[in-house]
Amino acid sequence: MIIVAATDFSTRSHRALRQAGLLARSRRAELHLVHVVDEDQPADLVRMEEREAQRVLVEQIGSMPELHDARCYPTVVKGHPFDGILRAAAAVGADLIVMGRPSQAIFARYFYRDHHRTCHSRWKISRADGEQRGPAAL
């Protein structure tokens, strides 16, 4: 099994990473921690954010007990957050996407409505609040 855990480094994302880590350990799954850097900004700033995001992901893997003994891979991609998460999931052949509860209604509307067919036909999505969407439960 391959799991993608999307993070924006918020508290909601932190809970999702912990949940994903526990699941990855119990299933002996690969866990890809994915952060998306907005590329609609100056190139120097994008590069700086990519480096910093990579550093934070590696730090989280080392410091979060739920990620110990899990096969974790830090991944930073550029683009729009919604598309970046889906591209990262497709690139690794993910079976499950775990994410924190969206903080903004626009995120929920875009990701869960506009990408409804794409997500539901390819991946099961689990939010840290326990709501699950997508193909049959694991």
Q: Span between N and C termini? A: 10 Å
Overall residue-averaged pLDDT value: 82
CATH superfamily caption: HUPs
What is the CATH C-level name?
Alpha Beta
CATH A-level architecture: 3-Layer(aba) Sandwich
Report the CATH topology name: Rossmann fold
Describe this structure in words.
This protein starts with a strand and ends in a 5-residue tail after the last strand. It contains five helices and six strands. Mean pLDDT is 82; it is low at 113-118. Strands 3-2-1-4-5-6 form a six-stranded mixed β-sheet, with helices on both faces. The radius of gyration is 14 Å and the shape is globular. Helices cover 49% and strands 22% of the residues. It has a single domain, classed as HUPs (Rossmann fold, 3-Layer(aba) Sandwich). The protein has 138 residues and is of the alpha/beta class.
Which key features would you list for this structure?
138 residues, alpha/beta, Rossmann fold, six-stranded mixed beta sheet, 6 strands
Topology:
Blueprint: E1 2-6, H1 11-27, E2 30-37, H2 43-63, E3 71-78, H3 81-92, E4 96-99, H4 105-114, H5 116-122, E5 124-127, E6 132-133
Short description:
The chain is an alpha/beta fold and 138 residues long. It has 5 helices and 6 strands; from the N terminus they run βαβαβαβααββ.
